[in-house]
Structure prediction request, 577 residues.
Amino acid sequence: MAILELNKVRKTFGAGRTQVEAMKQTNFRAEKGELIAIIGPSGSGKSTFLTIAGGLQTPTEGEVVINGAPMTRLKEKKRAKLRLKEVGFVLQASNLVPFLNIQQQMQLLDKVKKDNMKQEEAQQLYQSLGIEHLLGHFPKDLSGGERQRVAIAKALYTNPSVILADEPTASLDSDRAFEVMDMIKGITKEKQTATIVVTHDTRLIDDCDKVYQITDGEMTHQ
Amino acid sequence: MFLAWNEIKNNKLRFILVIGVLMLVSYLVFFLSGLANGLEQLNREAVDKWEADGIILTEESDLRLPQSLLAEDDFAGEGAADYTALAQLSAIANNGDQKANVFIFAVNDESFIMPNVTEGEVFTELGEVIADDTLKEEGFALGDELTLSSTEETVQIVGFTDKARFHAAPVLFTGFDTLDLLRYGEGTGGESEAVNAFVIRGDHLDQIQVDDELQVVSTNTFIENLPGYTEQNLTLTLMIYFLFVISAVVLAIFLYVLTIQKVSMFGVMKAQGVSSSYLACSVIAQTFLLSLAGVLIGFILTMITSIFLPTSVPIAFQYIEMLIYGVILMAVSMMGAFISVQTIVRIDPLKAIGG
Ligand SMILES: Nc1ncnc2c1ncn2[C@@H]1O[C@H](COP(=O)(O)OP(=O)(O)O)[C@@H](O)[C@H]1O
Ligand SMILES: [Mg+2]
Prediction:
């Protein structure tokens, strides 16, 4: 069964002459344990796709279903709950809270959601991301790469069934980038998550189960 | 609380500023309320001490004690649980060094308005008085012989009592015979005494029967009609109310600006799925902590200041009232927080993360 489904989803911005079709009508499904890459030039609609899939914005038409729940038909409050339970975001912009140290970023997630990673498992995650020595640090004391790795840890910490990553390796050197992709792949297989990674680094897509290309809002399977 | 407290810990300066604003506002509110109380007491503490319910004055007196002239047998106590006559004279008392504006109240030494003596003894002889003890701070002492502005006669302080100021002046208590002497000189008396008022105790003022030319009013009404009393009170009360409004606006703006600065941070948390209500609770908890701290520090500061104030500044604290004002100030800050909560609820996580 597909854990993430987009049925006849379309997204337009604006109206009349200035209307932009950021996403043409798209059907998409992702299964458990699947690692999917999405590539495409800037402005092609990759982020739009990812945020619609994760319930951060509603499509103009069509329906998004996550783990059987009709995301598009839920009120914002319910959608937030569903996001928290099912979706792990790794965003282009750093999604860290400035006044919490790395350990506390995870504690915050424990405050708002149950069934997160256990101590041991989390420790393993930190080690594989190379951030175990940073737990007492605040985001402002980290380099861009470190911050990105913490953001990944944060997304995985809640044991989501769907992981949506928007250029997660953008600010990493290529060794780290490969390492992080391996990491993401390992977790996808181990935890049986559906993982969608937006990237423009084509070297990183070799290990992926499926690759989609987006051009001008049109999604094609490679 | 987790978010609220960690944010405070990591942005100390910012939150010290917020606490500072709250502290200053509450300092001012507490201080003004202390002054308002002090001024009130200055006018009414002698009357409050009687624990009386009402007072009988003449209709034509317009509720002014000196203008109310009646005879001792004008009222015989119909409908009152207890009653007693009161006569008064105002004068400047001079002990040779110091002058003070005083009221001289003639009271019956067996009546319920007879003051307790805290130092010295009660008046027994003609010309003896019990004085309010604030006169001690002005340089008057037991045994002082006082000349009075309106008469050749002198009186002597034989005792002191506490809490006996009326209409911003200390009161000297004495017997009716002494007051007659001061009013009319030697060789009078015998007929029915002239008094200024009857002080009454009783739960049902409306059932008290008096002649047409007399009126019964509650002691509160009597005090509120002291010249200047209500005006003074209203002025200070208005200032306090304005302060509440001003602090509400200032704090709402302050908290709003703080919230606006954090929009993108709230946005990323919301994107993750942290609910608006969790964030809202956090902001409200934070405001609660800050306002509690501000009000408490303001209170402590007020207390410290009052220790160093000269005694001539009439300041008196009513802790219940201060508690209420403190709670209002906190409520007002919370209202500011609620405006910010509206903003948080409306934050679109998508816009905030700039994805
Ligand atoms: N909120 C928005 N309002 C108007 N147009 C938007 C908005 N978000 C995205 N777009 C447009 O949709 C298209 C796809 O954007 P995006 O999904 O961000 O592309 P990508 O992530 O591939 O660079 C772009 O043409 C962009 O200008
Ligand atoms: Mg993008």
Residues A 46-47 surround magnesium ion (ligand 2) (CB under 6 Å).
